[in-house]
Structure formats: C-alpha cells, structure tokens
Design a protein that fits this description.
It is built from seven helices and no strands. By secondary structure, it is an all-alpha fold.
C-alpha cells in the first residue's frame, strides 16, 4: 500500500522537474500554475489536489513578478493555507499537512517575525518541522490515517513531513540565491 503513494509522489516530483526544466515562464504566477497542474495531473488522489491547490493559491502573488519578496510570499502562503483548509476541511491538530503549514505561516505572519527573508524562512521552516514532529503524538482525524484511530498515534504524518520538507527547501533555495 505505501509503495503506491510513494510512486505517485515520485511521479509528481519528476513531472515538476520536467516542467521547470523544459518550459519557459513569463512570470512566477505562470511557473507556479504549471507546477500545480503537473502535480494534479501526476500525483492524483487527495495529495495531488491539496498540493495543486497550494501552488495555485500561492501563484496569485506572482503575477508580473520574477521574484517574490517576504511580504508577497507571506501573503501567498497564507492564501495557500486557506485554500488547503477549504478544500480538505482540516484544522491544526487533525494530523495532516496543515499541522506543518499552519505554524510556518503563523511564523511568517507574526508581527515579531524577522524582516530578513532568509531568517524569516528559516524560522518558518523550523516551525513547520516542529509542527510535523508534533503529529507523532496526535490521533489522525482526517485522511487515510483516520482509519487507524488510536493506532495512528506514535507516527509522524506523511503530509506534514512533505510540507516541512517543502519549507526547508524554500529556505535553502532562497539561501542559495542570496
């Protein structure tokens, strides 16, 4: 059973790599829209729809831009969180990718966040990792894990793990570009 999900995830990553390698984009919006569609068309299931929504909602702040500053990125990620919550109906504590995404966005939206992009993204990635780690103590209330009931406790949520990785990669990409 786990092999199928991993294979779809690998297919999604390969589809995104191909789009980013082979296509040319007028702006960030067009690029993120293409990423979203590559994921929706290759991953399928709830993960494809959720990550497709994530990138589609994030893409809105990229209209006419070749880079994103911290304010635009924060706005876009807040919109992505809202879109995922609307689509999936999940809240923090349900043991889903929202448990990593919500604290990362909250860190970025915090009035005390760093004004420095790299520092803010590092703190957001750390918040996402802490949110991911916290899912080990939760009982899944949404998604496939919910079928396990109490047996889901003690295991880190896969969606939260992938979201935490996405934030750490976002930080590393910004660091490499600096």
């Amino acid at each position: 059973m786990h092999r199928g999900r991993g294979r779809r995830g690998s297919q999604g990553a390969a589809a995104v790599r191909k789009v980013l390698r082979d296509d040319r984009f007028a702006d960030i919006r067009e690029q993120l829209d293409a990423v979203a569609m590559a994921l929706v068309n290759s991953v399928g299931g709830a993960s494809g729809a959720l990550y497709g929504t994530f990138f589609l909602r994030l893409s809105a702040v990229g209209e006419g831009r070749s880079t994103l500053d911290l304010a635009a990125l924060t706005t876009g990620l807040g919109s992505a969180l809202a879109g995922i919550r609307e689509l999936g109906g999940s809240s923090p504590g349900d043991k889903t990718l929202v448990d990593a995404l919500h604290p990362a966005v909250a860190e970025l939206e915090s009035p005390t966040r760093s004004a420095d992009l790299l520092t803010a993204l590092d703190r957001a990635a750390t918040a996402a990792e802490e949110g991911r780690n916290a899912t080990a103590g939760m009982v899944a209330r949404m998604g496939r894990g919910s079928y396990l009931g109490d047996r889901s406790r003690g295991h880190v949520d896969a969606g939260a793990t992938s979201m935490a990785l996405l934030f750490r990669c976002l930080h590393r990409s910004a660091e490499a570009a600096a």
